[in-house]
Amino acid sequence: MSTMLRSFFENRTQAGRLLAEQFVGMPLERPLVLAIPRGGIDVGVEIARRLGAELDVVLARKLRCPFQPELALGAVSETGEVTFDRFSSALASVDDAAVEAERQHQLAEIARRRELYRSVRPQAKLGGRSVILTDDGIATGSAMIAAIQAVRSARPREIIVAVPVGSPERVAEIARHCDRMVCLREPHDFQAVGQAYRDFDQVSDERVVTVLQAATVESATA
To answer: Max Cα separation, the chain?
Structure first.
């Protein structure tokens, strides 16, 4: 029977709680949880609550192939830096102008989200801290690698990537870019992140804003 015929997690909240248990007793320096929105926010808030850690977001977007949007050419981070997916079979077929057009499109979306999210949560300081990067899962991993590179430039003490589920090949690739990798499930027949969840409803911007706002208040009163 295929591993992915059944769900591993009820929803992102349950997945986040299970993932948070992996950090109990782990030595961390002023831990900061950075979620990739939007799907990562409900995972990240559970890790932050369990650790009593600060919660913030990191913005990175997949660069879509123009003739097959479900394929990732790579990703772009909030800094504008592009990371290409070395496994992508579409890269050789896309010219520089198309890549730049997609980069600008995704940077515009990053700017929109930054304005919205930063209205309720100023960007956290990363230097010298244990940073936990999380999302609801890893398919291509392009956005996560772009996020790692952006975070690395801020000189954290360490970068830990933590996800509930991921493609074994891509989890191994991401492990090369971070200091520690935590993944609860790596099914050999992985097809899509959503298959690991019974409830995988789309997460709204409003939900991200609500979670960030509540987490900021909790941090201020702790």
So the answer is: 53
Identity of the residue numbered 137: G
Chain-wide mean pLDDT for the chain?
Answer: 92
- Its pTM stands at 0.92
Per CATH, which fold does 3-59+124-217 belong to? Rossmann fold (3.40.50)
CB of 160 closer than 8 Å to CB of 131: yes
CB atoms within 10 A of CB 13: 14
Q: What is the pLDDT of residues 73-120, one digit of tens each?
A: 999 999 999 998 877 766 667 888 999 999 999 999 999 999 999 999
Q: What is the pLDDT of residues 165-201, one digit of tens each?
A: 999 999 999 999 999 999 999 999 999 999 999 999 9
**Residue spans per domain, the chain:** 3-59+124-217
Q: In the 8-state DSSP scheme, what is residue 123?
A: P
Residue among 163, 175, 161 at smallest CA distance from 137: 163
Q: Which residues contact residue 156 at a Cβ distance below 8 angstroms, ignoring those fewer than 6 apart?
A: 32, 126, 127, 128, 129, 130, 131
Contact 164, 19 (CB under 8 A): yes
Residue matched to tokens 């394929």: 71
| Number of residues in the chain | 222
Residue 50 C-beta-side C-alpha neighbours within 13 Å: 22
Closest CA to 133 of 85, 186, 197, 183: 183
Q: How many distinct helices (H) and strands (E) make up the chain?
A: 6, 8
Distance between CA atoms of residues 177 and 200, nearest Å: 28
